[in-house]
From TrEMBL:
<keyword id="KW-0479">Metal-binding</keyword>
<keyword id="KW-0408">Iron</keyword>
<dbReference type="Pfam" id="PF05721">
    <property type="entry name" value="PhyH"/>
</dbReference>
<feature type="compositionally biased region" description="Gly residues">
    <location>
        <begin position="225"/>
        <end position="240"/>
    </location>
</feature>
<dbReference type="InterPro" id="IPR008775">
    <property type="entry name" value="Phytyl_CoA_dOase-like"/>
</dbReference>
<feature type="region of interest" description="Disordered">
    <location>
        <begin position="218"/>
        <end position="245"/>
    </location>
</feature>
<comment type="similarity">
    <text>Belongs to the PhyH family.</text>
</comment>
<protein>
    <recommendedName>
        <fullName>Phytanoyl-CoA dioxygenase family protein</fullName>
    </recommendedName>
</protein>
Amino acid sequence: MPPPGLTPEQLSSFHKDGYLIVRNALRPETVTSLLAETQSLLQNFSLEDHPLTRFSTGQTSEHVGDDYFLTSGDKIRFFLEEDAFDAAGNLRKPKDKAVNKIGHGLHTSSPPFARLIERRAGEEEEEEVSPAAVARSLGYVDPRCLQSMVICKQPGIGGAVPPHQDSTFLYTDPPSATGFWYALEDATLENGCLSFLPGSHEWAGVDKRLVRKKGGAGTEMVDNEGGGKFPRGGGGGGDGGARRGRELDDYVPGEVKAGDLVLIHGNLLHKSERNTSAKGRIIYTFHIIEGEDREYDERNWLQPPEGGFTKLYA
């Protein structure tokens, strides 16, 4: 009997909408373990030798691109909220309440997070499905895991993330990224849950790319001129022009409980709002790309570590 993964109904929903919420994907014990590891990391990292790198979505300043960021693919590093600083550039929040995200190599460098990735198809705990089983359901031949991170929507200062596509940041030709987004705390309208534009993965081309600047110093957003611009090679799905004109009201919020998993197609337009509430929102996310017959662009901000990106299948 094949290992359990997504049901036919779940697959149909994912292919139609470009995202899927899988309820209770993690057992409470797993959520507790990952939250404990997160809190330990937040409490114990040092600010003494930290470059105070701020994470920016590009709305108010350029995307982050210093060496601390560019070499983080296989490490555990801490990126701070822009609004955690005062006008003089000093932190105005305790360090554990100032972090925007921890990344980007949790799946290789943190044992609790590595255990989730290392769970092979067929090795599921009761009522918990492995990422490998999900990837197999989605048709991946050689899925590779990359860009794993904890994202903290800090109370009162957690910044908004504008509409974007994950393929912009993790570009393959043709596009192949899928995001695994696990809620470790409840994500609500009040504290900045995700919102999705259903079906946009079928018509929204990957028009922009975040790449390393020439010489490797910093990053920049550039027009995408690659052949794999559209998900199905169809030039935007025929009525793409009309669909691009959709109003922001067409975004559908995805409120989730701790332990839920959100699967996100790499071409799907999605966003989140600022957290103005007193309740934080901690999530864990990683992405997979197809390693079979795909070109991972050498200009992508994230480059493979020695030995390549982590295989999900043994």
